[in-house]
Specification:
There is one protein chain. By secondary structure, the protein is an all-beta fold. Helix content is 0%, strand content 50%. It has no helices and eleven strands. Strand 7 and strand 8 form a beta hairpin.
């Protein structure tokens, strides 16, 4: 019933930028997080945003480069990624904490 659909992933060169989007259908955008799964690694939290105050948190590896935001009117959460590095490569998922719903992921590949 509740579906999360990510989009915006692409192949980009190091130093480039991407904006990922996650549209929530059948529900509302509350506490949301972005995770990524790199090849051969565990899924990790990249960033999250809380419901009421819109507080954000970031993994140390992306701090200062990534920005999470949301547009509740559009039921969408975003991840703006700047100064991308090869180690940012992975499958990026959005997650709705309160309902424990996950998207299927969107692939981000950073390579020369």
């Amino acid at each position: 019933q509740v579906q999360l659909v990510e989009s915006g992933g692409a192949l980009v060169q190091p130093g480039g930028s991407l904006t990922l989007s996650c549209v929530v259908s059948g529900g509302l955008v509350f506490d949301m997080g972005w995770y990524r799964q790199a090849p051969g690694k565990q899924r990790e939290l990249v960033a999250d945003i809380t419901t009421i105050r819109g507080e954000t948190q970031y993994a140390d590896s992306v701090k200062g480069r990534f920005t999470i935001s949301r547009d509740t009117a559009k039921n969408t959460v975003y991840l703006q990624m700047n100064k991308l590095k090869p180690e940012d490569t992975g499958l990026y998922f959005c997650h709705a904490l309160l309902t424990d719903d996950w998207g299927r992921g969107t692939q981000v590949t950073v390579s020369t």
